[in-house]
Amino acid sequence: MSWVALALLGGVVGLDATSFPQIMISRPIVAATLAGLVVGHPGLGFSFGVVLEAFHLAILPIGAARYPEAGTAAAAGAFALVAARTGVGAAPLLITLGFALVWGRVAAASVEAARHASERVVRAAEPGMGPAGVEIRHMAAMAIDFCRGGVITVTGAALGWLLLRVLVAGSPPHPVIAQGALVVLLCGAAAGALTVFGGMSERKASFVAGAIVGTLIAVFA
To answer: Among the ranges 72-76, 131-135, 200-204, which has the highest mean pLDDT value?
Structure first.
């Protein structure tokens, strides 16, 4: 049932990005939290979503710009991280974050394919079609997007789960290497997030204070 719920969630997340209702369900922090909730660990999903959100804050979906689809990738990654039951550590988080960033690009390609399919649905409309016919075409395009979101999320979660089971449960990376790579990845996320809020020069004090508090929480929690 969890996989069915994930498919439905993925469909809604895929719709929310562009089609309907655009209420920020497709943001990584929300999508990952909801995916974690599906498998009973919303807190872990939220933590994963926070990190992934930092990578996507600087991405502006303007016009015809191509950008990764963060929502379905976040949902897939969070679900895989919880479902794989590999424990919470640097290695599982690093692998899942890397996978989610790559899967966001795959999901973006699926968005483009779905839009081409929707275009063909609209072009097949008969001349003189009334309002009811137009509404049917519109609903058909939304159904395509919903199915795409569900399929790409479940597929990503399955691949992420398999990747974690093979790389972490089978032969886990050395903890020092995993922690070092994770720090580099998180620094990249922080750098991307800072550009949205004016850069390091504008937010130096806030960034340093947040880093200190976050470190203390991580050490003593």
So the answer is: 72-76
Q: What burial letters (b/e) apply to 7-16, b meaning 16+ CB within 10 Å?
A: bbbbbbbbbb
Q: How is the chain classified by DSSP, letter by letter? A: -HHHHHHHHHHHHHHHHHTS--SSTTSHHHHHHHHHHHTT-HHHHHHHHHHHHHHHTT----TT-----HHHHHHHHHHHHHHTT--SSHHHHHHHHHHHHHHHHHHHHHHHHHHHHHHHHHHTPPTT--HHHHHHHHHHHHHHHHHHHHHHHHHHHHHHHHHHIIIIIISPPPHHHHHHHHHHHHHHHHHHHHHHTT-HHHHHHHHHHHHHHHHHHHHH-
CB-CB neighbours of 204 under 10 Å: 11
CB 90 within 8 A of CB 178: yes
Q: Could you tell me the two tokens for 189?
A: 């996320």
pLDDT by residue (tens digit) across 151-201? 999 999 999 999 888 887 655 555 554 555 555 555 655 655 555 555 556
This prediction has a pTM of: 0.74
Residue with tokens 């504008």: 202
